[in-house]
Amino acid sequence: MSAPTAAEAASHSSAWAPFRHRVFAAMWAAQLVSNVGGWMQTVGAQWLMLTLTGSAAYVALVQTASGLPVVLFAPLAGAIGDLVDRRRFLLITQTAMPVAALVLAGLTIANLVSPWSLLLLVFAVGTGQALTSPTWQTLQPELVDGADRTQAIALGAVNQNLARAIGPALGGLILAAAGTGSVFLINSASFLAVIWVLAWWHSSTRAPTSQLPPEHLGVALRAGARYVAASPALLVILLRATVFIVFASALWALLPVIAQGALQLSSSGYGLLLGSVGIGAVAGGALLPILRKRMSPDVLFGTGSVIFAGVVLIVGYVPISAVVGASLLLGGMAWILVLSTLNSLYQLTLPQWVRARGMAFYLIAFQGGNALGSATSGVLAQKLGLMPALTIAAIGLTISACLGIWRRFQTIQPDDLLPAGDWPSPHLVAGSEETGPTLVTVEYWAQAGAEDNLIAALRDTRFSRRRTGASSWRVWRDSNDPGHVVEEFVVASWQEHQRQHARVTVRDQARLERVRALTNPVRPTAVRHWVAPSSGGTRE
After folding, report:
1. Cβ proximity of 373 and 243 under 8 Å
2. Do 349 and 474 fall within a single domain?
3. Same domain (yes/no): 400, 495
4. What is the C-alpha separation between 214 and 92, in angstroms, rounded?
5. Structural domain count of the chain
6. By CB atoms within 10 Å of each CB, which of 6, 171, 173, 394 scores lowest?
7. Is 512 within a domain?
8. CA distances (Å), 237 to each of 215, 283, 310, 468, in order?
């Protein structure tokens, strides 16, 4: 889909423009119902753990148990999401998740739950969420047109935080009135909304047809990991997201302890505190289109990080419920600034063919950082006290804001990630069935005086070659003729090299055109493909 014109962008400048698309609106509403149930479960699980143990470390482990499955299973989930029918895959995962929630509810109502069984079942529900998230997060923005896509991604973060406003408050009230088991039962029922919408929706889009056989799961996993590892733009986002969430998670992990201890609040009061965060996040989501016009992604991220650091300090040092609640409103706004900036930049830096796989690594950074930060902050609070633990978190958040001085975000236009479409397909001699690695060599002859520029331009293509499939890459210069240069790279198989041709984007093609512009037109570039012979012959 082409980039929007200025007139189109202006017509879609509203924060709520994506809701004009019926399927997006239905999925967003169903996700909100499910997220409300999820936050109710979080409140119930944290409060139940506090009742069972009275330990800040154990309470923090609830978030760790919820986030750890993403670290373990997200790459697998992302690869599956890129290879199979996404609707059917989501139906399967969403149908399995209520089962674990029902078991948790049953054990709680029967008074049979222990700290470790609670963590195990929270982990089980989190596993279903880990399998769902890469596909779900990349699917929803595709339901709107290009002009609305960035705000659709932001509305995904708003959804989570609006649920944070409703779920904890509602969960606290139900917990106080009917007990923790009822909270878990309602969470189990909340999955039915997503299941219903997925059953109702039938996608009108189809993946591009290909004459190649489907990728094997292992090959797809390696391709996703290789793409992210060879993308400096994605790695910067992952680095800054990880640093931010490791320290920001301290607030969410320790807030139940602060609410019960320093603020002397009940479970419903704790829910209202989290509700303040959600209300602030919704307000921040409404302001995002205006702020994006006036601030770069680096400024948005840095501003949000610094504000969040200040909120962490207020929560840690000011034991006044009204002040803490007001500061959490600002915290919600800062949270949405940071999350929407990271999420939209990351998703829009991924081409279609690897989007779910690539998104899995973002979720690993986010949830893995959350799990690590929650556990660490819990231990620090146990050993040093709440205020020192939160002070360390605030310092870390300030450092995350300063990382933009060293590593800035890189904005890539969506049209630059579309398939180039003009790379000729490689051919293999008829009857050959080579399954081993493929070595590709490309011989260049530089224009007079452009020898060093050609080498530099070729080195600039190495990430493109690796992102599209090369497992190794090197450039060689003829010792007798500095203008004669050979580029070589290895691809895992002939089929993978054929896929590599289809993966070349407009941005990759532009780099290759810069290389060609430096070559001697009298000496055409020569491309050769070397395939590993099939094993055979006699043994001695």
Report:
1. no
2. no
3. no
4. 21
5. 2
6. 6
7. yes
8. 27, 24, 23, 20
Helix ranges (H only) for 318-385 are 321-347, 355-384
The C-alpha atoms of residue 482 and residue 442 are separated, in whole angstroms, by 15
Residues 6+ apart with CB under 8 A from 523: 445
Burial of 116 from C-beta contacts in 10 A (0-12 / 13-18 / 19+): exposed
Residue 536 within a domain: no
277 lies in some domain: yes
Dist CA 160 CA 278 (whole Å): 8
Which residue in the block uniquely carries the two structure tokens 């990430």? 463
Residue 394 lies in a domain: yes
Distance CA 299, CA 284 (A): 15
What confidence tens digit (pLDDT) does each residue in 58-73 have?
A: 887 887 788 778 888 8
Instruction: Report DSSP letters for 57-78, one per residue.
Output: HHHHHHHHHHHHHHHHHHHHHH
CATH code at position 393: 1.20.1250.20
Helix 232-260 × helix 355-384 angle, to 10°? 40
The domain of 341 spans 10-203+215-416
Q: Angle at which helices 297-317 and 232-260 pack, to 10 degrees?
A: 20
Residue 245 main-chain phi, psi, to 5 deg: -70, -30
Residue 354 and residue 360: Cα distance in Å, rounded? 10
Cα torsion 34, 36, 42, 44: sign: negative
Tokens of 260: 């019960």
Those residues of the chain that have pLDDT short of 50 are 1-12, 206, 430-431, 537-540
Q: What pTM does this model have?
A: 0.81
Return the half-sphere exposure (C-beta side, CA atoms, 13 A cut-off) of residue 171.
35
